[in-house]
Amino acid sequence: MVRDGFFYALGLGAVAAVLWRMNMPGWLLALPIVLAAFFLWFFRDPNRTIPQGPGQVVSPGDGVVTEAEWIETVSGSRLRLSIFLNVFDVHVNRVPVGGVVTVCEYRKGEFMNAMNPESVLHNEQTLITIDAGGYEVSFKQIAGLLARRIVCNLKVGDRVERGQRMGLIKFGSRVDVLIPAAANLKVKTGSRVKGGSTVLAVIPELPAEMKDAAMAVVA
Q1: How many domains does the chain divide into?
Q2: Same domain, 161 and 117
Q3: 119 and 70 belong to one structural domain
C-alpha cells in the first residue's frame, strides 16, 4: 500500500475518535470511518507478474484504453495509447519498458476531465522518456478532473526495469504512451489493462548488429 493511504486513514481515524468522545450520533461517527477505509483501499498497491518477453511494452497504469492511434511527432511516426484511470482503479504507475531515463519533465497545468482530448495539452503532467536500447518509449502522467498531485520518483539517468513502480496520480487521471510506429499492437480501444502486467505492444526485435550498437550507446 502507498503510504499516503495511511496518512489519510490516520487523520480520519482521529476525527472519528473526537466524534466518539463527543458522543456524536452513530451515523456521523461512521462517516470518517468509511472514508478511512476507502482511502486505505484506494491507495492499494498490488503485486503484479511482469511479462519477460523481448520487446514487450507493458501498461504504465490500470484503466481502459480510450485511444489507440498513429500520430506524427518531431521524432517521426508514433503509436499513441491513452489509458483512462477512474477513481476505482489502482493509481500506482509503472515503467513500461526497461532502459535509461533520458527525459523527466514536470509541467503545471489545468485539471480538465482526463477524457477530454485537450487534457493532454493543458493539464498538469509529467513526461518521461526511456531509451530501451535501439528505440525509445515515452509516457505521460496526466492529472484529471479530481487529481491534484502527480508523484514521479524518476530522474534523468536512472536505469529502470520493465514494470518497476515509478509513482502515482491521485484520484481520476490518465496516462499516455508513445511507442515506435513499427510496434505490434496487442490491445484496442475499450481494452481494460493492468499496470505492469498487460502487454500493450511488442517492438520487433532488432538485427543483432543494430542491437549491439544500441546497447553500447545506452551503456
Answers
A1: 2
A2: yes
A3: yes
Reduce the DSSP state of residue 82 to 3 states and report it: strand
Residues 6+ apart with CB under 8 A from 205: 54, 55, 211
Q: Would you say the pTM of this structure is higher than 0.70?
A: yes
60 and 34 share a domain? no
The least confident of 4-8, 22-26, 47-51, 208-212 is 208-212
- Is 77 marked active-site? no
**Active-site pick, 75, 77, 173, 191:** 173
Whether 29 and 116 map to the same domain: the answer is: no
Confidence label for 4 from pLDDT (cuts 50, 70 and 90): low
**Mind giving me the DSSP string for 125-183?**
EEEEEEE-SSSEEEEEEEE-SS---EEE---TT-EE-TT-EEEEE-SSEEEEEEEETT-
Residue 37 CB neighbour total at 10 angstroms: 12
Give tens-digit pLDDT for 74-99: 777 889 999 998 888 998 999 999 99
CA-CA distance, 167 to 184, in Å (whole number)? 27
